[in-house]
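Let us work through a complete example step by step.
Step 1: write down the sequence.
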Amino acid sequence: MHTTRLIVPALLLSLAAGAASAKVLLGATRPNNFTYSVDNTPVPLNSAGATSLTFNATKAALHVLTYSAECSADNGADTNDGWVHLDIEVNGVVQAPTVGTADAFCSPDNAAGSDGWVRPSITIPVRLVAGANTVRVLGRMQAPVTTGWLGDSALVIHD
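Step 2: predict the structure and record it as tokens.
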């Protein structure tokens, strides 16, 4: 009887831990660097260079999206004015808080040229539909930045 009192709680904890694990719906990485000089440029999301990825969700629900990339911004001057920002689209809709221009992903570092790289990430809740869903990341720039750099990226969507 004493053994049963120890086994049952351990079994319940084991089941609870298993239920808490997240199911990855999409995992994509892209090695190498990507630079752009036109605002609203679709960003490659995998090693094949796809700028839009389609994946399936078993049910309509709120999920978690995380995007990270090596980032640099060049404004052609020795200032930190301007920034690189992103629009993350799910099923054609830009997701908050990436709507608009006030969501800096990285900024220049007071030196001319693309340097001062950082590895920022953003994690946001996204509502998916049951079945096929698409995701895109658009590289944006806030003046006076004229070149954005997003490299060695990772995109993960999970329960």
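Step 3: interpret the result. The first helix runs from residue 2 to 19.
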